[in-house]
Design brief:
single chain, 298 residues, alpha/beta, 6-phosphogluconate dehydrogenase C-terminal fold, 2 domains, 4-stranded mixed sheet, 11 helices, binds nicotinamide-adenine-dinucleotide, binds prephenic acid, NAD(P)-bd_dom_sf, Preph/Arog_dehydrog
Length: 298
């Protein structure tokens, strides 16, 4: 018997489409209903075999679903939960893949009717590409997924959401929403803020009488891949995780100013120490041991 009988996915893009693909491939879902606004993307999702059918009306689409997965930009999620709440079937679990958790979990938990359950989640996996065409079944393989239960979370619903992500290949970690938002501000949101700024700074630099981006090689391309990510998704993340992002941008500005001062005064030994310490941290992530399959953190 599959884990999920009818899965409704609201927002059939990279994240929603990839989850549907892997659960279907594993035979862990009976039927997948896609819900979204754009007809072309949803028709393409049917053609690709990612969903069985689709609806434009979220209330109609979630009818009869035992699991609803929200994978739209973070600022839309609470409003969608408010819209679908009256149409949820008894026992339905609503979960999401949004990149920020505090606002979403605080807003959505009270919106869900008695007998239904909300569980916040965030797969730490993605690419700079969007839409169902960009989705693929192995996206979550070996990657972390953070689940953010609260004191109100139903244990059975939590177990089912954890199981769903394990079946998708993820290493599931549990964390409170505040810690989640600070962790991702550091390891995901700050790098995006830096990459977007770097590309604008270099792309708009006019000191060489030509657009110098055409000379970009491995270093610039590797560093800035994520600046090709969807501006709407990242606008919403910047708005919703404002405080934690500002804290990390300020921390980064301190380190950047420190390096600038070392370069300005030509202190070679100190510059080398700065780079050596960074190399040590970075080599540590690249060489890190295989992730444990299930880990609980609070
Ligand atoms: N892209 C990543 O790397 C990544 C990783 C982890 C989590 N996330 C989170 O997952 C969510 C989805 O991101 P994605 O990369 O799959 O985006 P995407 O653009 O590939 O897919 C989102 C889909 O939602 C649809 N949509 C937007 N607003 C809608 C609304 N109000 N109602 C119904 N459908 C709507 C879009 O048309 C699109 O089809 C976001 O919350 C994002 O923060 C993204
Ligand atoms: O690899 C990428 O392109 C990503 O941006 C994925 C990434 C990340 O920063 O690592 C981006 C946003 C998410 O919420 C989770 C993962």
């Amino acid at each position: 018997m599959p884990l999920i009988n009818r899965l409704a996915i609201i927002g059939v893009g990279l994240i929603g489409g990839s989850l549907a693909r892997i659960l279907r491939e594993k035979g862990e879902v009976g039927e997948v209903v896609g819900i979204g606004r754009g007809k072309a993307n949803l028709e393409r999702a049917v053609e690709l075999g990612v969903i069985d059918r689709y609806a434009h009306d979220p209330a109609e689409g979630v009818s009869g679903a035992d699991m609803v997965f929200l994978a739209t930009p973070v600022c839309t999620i609470a409003d969608i939960v408010k819209t679908i709440a009256p149409s949820l079937s008894p026992g339905c679990i609503i979960t999401d893949g949004g990149s920020v958790k505090g606002d979403i979990v605080r807003a959505c938990e009270p919106l869900v009717p008695a007998g239904c359950h909300f569980v916040g989640g965030h797969p730490i996996a993605g690419t700079e590409n969007s839409g169902v065409e960009a989705s693929f079944a192995t996206l979550y393989q070996g990657r972390r997924c953070i689940i953010t239960p609260t004191e109100h979370t139903d244990r059975g619903a939590l177990d089912k959401v954890v199981r769903m992500w394990q079946l998708a290949g993820s290493n599931v970690v549990q964390m409170d929403v505040e810690k989640h938002d600070r962790v991702v501000a550091a390891i995901s949101h700050l790098p995006h803020m830096v990459a977007y700024s770097l590309v604008n700074a270099v792309g708009e630099y006019d000191g060489c009488d030509e657009n110098i981006l055409k000379y970009s090689a491995g270093g610039f391309r590797d560093f800035t891949r994520i600046a090709s990510s969807d501006p709407v998704m990242w606008r919403d993340i910047a708005l919703q995780n404002r405080d934690s992002i500002l804290e990390m941008m300020d921390l980064f500005a301190d380190y950047y100013a420190r390096l600038r001062a070392l370069v300005a005064c030509g202190d070679g030994a100190a510059i080398e120490r700065f780079f050596a310490s960074s190399k040590e941290h970075r080599d540590g992530i690249v060489n890190q041991a295989a992730l444990p399959s299930v880990k609980e953190e609070s």
